Amino acid sequence: MKKTLVALAVLAASGASFAQVSLTGEFAYGYLATTSGAGATSSGGGLDTALLVFGVKEDLGGGTSVAVTMKTDGTGGRSATLNNDDQLIEVKTSFASFKAGSWKPGNWLQGNTGYAGWYGLDGKVLGARSVYDSIGVSVPVGAVTLSATAYEPANALGEGSGNAGTSAQQNTTLGLSYAAGALGLSAGYVTYNNQDATDSTSKSVTRVAAKYDFGVAAVGAGVAVQSLGDGGTNTQTLISVSAPIGALSVNAGWASNKMDVASTSSKFADNGTKTGYQLGLQYNLSKRTYGILNYGNWLNGVNDEQNSNLTALTLVHDF
Asked: Are 182 and 212 in contact (CB under 8 A)?
């Protein structure tokens, strides 16, 4: 054991391999008031975000590097237990990037339209996010990036367990993006296994989005059409805009979710369309500290008695 430790110390001292270690994070505290579609109200101040991000990057030589990201979330507050957040490893070569880990991907429409709101419309109008074990590859070809990612069933986490006796759906996601100057274009196609003839399962999702930064303002729009097992469809749309005004920036997003299914289940209780929007103001006190004022209003379910809404004031520090 002692010889092993000595050998490791000599290797580290020799500079044969360099690892860069970083510690970053985000802290946010604020006041939030909400009203549900049933008319229930709630409000109060508290911890919004307490995130630590440990990063390690190593240059392997020959244009190849490896990076590990480990996030720890203490958002629950003083008496809460720390929770694992995204855990990822990425190997970059001169021709491709390979990524694997357990993580909660951002909502595709919000990410590819440049949506800048602090509170997302995912889980409100747009579909909710889930945690996945996944492995993927992306290949840049000039201004175009091609990608393919295999996702195990949502929330079926852990080595050796994702496909163990589960009928939940795995999916394979193919992506294409183009970025040149102020213009960004994205397209994606998702295909699923374990389909049945109900709206509880998905066959595929087709996605397209575009965004453009005019300098005075950036705008984006996108649509995702999900084909369901019963032959029905779920169409989600997002339009976003943001604009800087000195130290102040404004942003807005409007979304719709149209459900057209042949047989209802617990997934879609009723056919119909729900819509919603969010408005945001961000004032930058510095490059890392800023205050945010948000207002959101949305129809959470097509049979809700009234729209849900939120009003939030949040102070954020990134480090």
From this structure: yes
Closest C-alpha to 29, from 311, 255, 291, 299: 291
- Give which of 203, 300, 201, 315 is closest to 257, Cα–Cα: 300
Handedness of CA 27, 309, 115, 68 (dihedral sign): positive
Distances (CA, A) of 285 to 239, 245, 308: 28, 13, 31
Spatial distance between the Cα atoms of 50 and 90, rounded to a whole number of angstroms: 24
| Residue keyed to tokens 């295909």 | 191
Cβ distance 256 to 274 under 8 Å? yes
Q: Work out the number of other CB atoms within 10 angstroms of the CB of residue 76.
A: 13
Complete domains list, the chain, with CATH? 21-318 (2.40.160.10)
Provide the whole-model pTM: 0.89
Q: What share of the chain is helix, strand, coil (3-state, %, to 5)?
A: 5, 60, 35
pLDDT along the chain (319 residues), means of 10: 44 57 97 94 96 96 96 86 93 97 96 96 95 97 98 90 80 98 98 88 96 98 95 95 97 96 60 94 97 96 86 98
Query: How far apart are alpha carbons 239 and 258 in whole angstroms?
Result: 15
> What are the residues whose beta carbons fall under 8 Å from the beta carbon of 196, sequence distance 6 or more?
229
**Phi (first) and psi of residue 107, to 5 degrees:** -60, 130
Q: What is the CB neighbour count within 10 angstroms for residue 315?
A: 15
- Maximum distance among all Cα pairs of the chain, rounded to whole angstroms: 71
Q: What region, left, alpha or beta, does residue 46 occupy, with left being phi > 0 and alpha being psi -120 to 50 degrees?
A: left
CA dihedral (301, 28, 118, 286) in degrees, to 10, reads 170
Q: Would you state the pLDDT for residue 12?
A: 46
